[in-house]
Amino acid sequence: MSKGNKLGLWILTSLVVGNMVGSGIFMLPRSLAEVASPAGVIGAWVLTGLGVLMTALVFGNLAIRKPNLNGGPQIYAKELFKSGSKASLLSGFMASWGYWIGNLAGNIAIITTFAGYLSTFFPVLTSKAELFTIGSFTLKVGNALTFLVCTLLLWTTHFIILRGLENAGKLNFLATSAKIMGFALFIIVALFAFEKANMLPFVADKTDEAGNAIGLFGQINNAALSTLWAFIGVESAVVFASRARKQVDVKRATTLGLFIALAIYIGISTLVMGMLDQETLIHSDKPLIDAIATVLGPIGGKVLAGVGLISLIGSTLGWVMLSSEVPYQAAKQGMFIPAFLKENKKGTPIFSLIVTNLLGQLFIFSTVSNSISAAFDFVIVIATLSYLIPYFISSIFQLKLVITGETYENGRGRVVDGVIAVLSTVYSLWVIKAGTADMKTFLFGMLLLASGILFYGQLKKNPVPSGDKNRKSA
């Protein structure tokens, strides 16, 4: 890739912030209100923020210590085993597959949120009028239009990225800048509209489907998976490490992006809980708009919806870029199907981009039979479970380096890095445990992960030497 197509610190940071502050900021206040009281929500944010900070520090450290292992946290899986062994190849492929599936689901969470906020201007997107019925299936007008809007956004993004990753990155930077300014204005308005009464009772029991009471710690546990979704994307700079102008920018962008996103999430999530009563918040498909509309009326809601749409377009660009980069970089390391190495003249991984978006289109079908909020809830759980394994693997790999002393001169920094790696590992295990509590969702997520075995044979038949540079151009 030419120097003109390299990504600098601010574009890398915008990818981190843009990918983290995507659909979550718009939809999570409702999802969290369903499972936790205000105290539980804040507790989940604090614990998740600390856990993800440890994971982000692991990513940044590995990017500097192992600059040849770029393309995302899943790349480290093959390094846990003997180089060239079957275990190394299989673990690398399966981790890459799971991480890729998580990205596919993540894309659709953002795209469906875009459709939800577009309904502010076009209420017909939520219409319950029936188009036709086939057997037990009934297609409603709103679902059909939502499907078309989501499809249009996906493939428009596809063609923008085909014109070059640097230009797409610049568009993402502009959208992220507009997003941050819009959220800053929201926070200012929300501070004046905050009502303490909406946060009361601050600590209250929730009930599960069986009617059993869930205490504060149980609520924090249940909310942990949703709050982690907000931080998915913290590894974005790591995925694009090979395209960075300076390797040190990867660590800087990861840390800076995390703190910016954390401030936005905690601030807005808390303020929304103080602007809407719990019942209204739980039943809202557009919680931020509903909150701002209580202060500024419909006009304020439309302005915020406009900012949200710009933000989500930027997030879609960033996530589709990241999703297509994952199997491409894995193939460069000899851990994915060779066809994914194919690039166009702009250096865009064209085959990976096409396959990624075709599979993403399949996820969009979830909008045909579900409401926007139901589709969002479904895909974020699947996506988050898919991400946890590569996050866990990254922490274990960091521990391996600390224990063996590899890349450490005179033992400098080993103790601190070891503590960080242990905390990151414990956090990953805790959230995995929380996420597997719902057996139905867990089994579906594992089925998607296991489906990679169907394609593993193709990799064994056509192995690609690690670091292969002889890629075809379209």
Automatic annotation (TrEMBL):
The chain crosses the membrane at residues 7-28, 40-64, 97-121, 141-161, 173-194, 214-241, 253-276, 350-372, 378-403, 415-435, 441-459. InterPro entries: AA/rel_permease1, APC_superfamily. It is found in: Cell membrane. Its main location: membrane. It comes from the Bacteria. It is a multi-pass membrane protein. Keywords: Cell membrane, Membrane, Transmembrane, Transmembrane helix. The keyword Cell membrane applies. The keyword Zinc does not apply. This is Amino acid permease. It comes from Ectobacillus funiculus.
